[in-house]
Amino acid sequence: MSSKKHENTVPDIGKGYEENEIGLKGILSFAIGLFLLIVITFGLMWAFLNVLKDKAKQDNADERNPMMMSEKERLPPEPRLQLAPGFGIDSDKGRVNLELMAPGAEYLEYHKQSIHLWEHGRKDEKTGMVTIMPIDEAKAKLLSQNVKAKSGPEAEEFLKNSRGFVSDSSAGRVASEKRR
Question: Were both Cys, which of 115, 132, 151, 178 would link to 122 (CB 3.0–4.6 Å)?
């Protein structure tokens, strides 16, 4: 408890202000304490930042992040705009870059690849099996096998059902129209 008792003092009306008793010692001790607290916090945060930087360097040196996407995975899915990075076509020889080519370059490259496949076919590099055969060779191979067509009532019924389609007049219930 305080030893000072509250004294009823009569205000001095002659003064234009009210006298305050300021404890300068309390204000200075608070300011010094606040300054020390700020300095200590700054030092701790600086040390913590250095620890995190060292940890990041160590992690990067050990191995690459397994969840990090590759350069190809970062690109948006096909189709892309012609001038966009990564615009091109995948071919047997690798990726054909068409970034700064004319707008019809994609079609021309695709057409060139299709013609090459039709004329020469494609073989699997690992097994040596033919995956795409030239059209003329495929026709000759099919005709040399002497494939027999199905005949009889079952084949006629299948042909009849395959030609029918659902029309508006049947309200979508029955295949009532026939293709010619």
Answer: 132
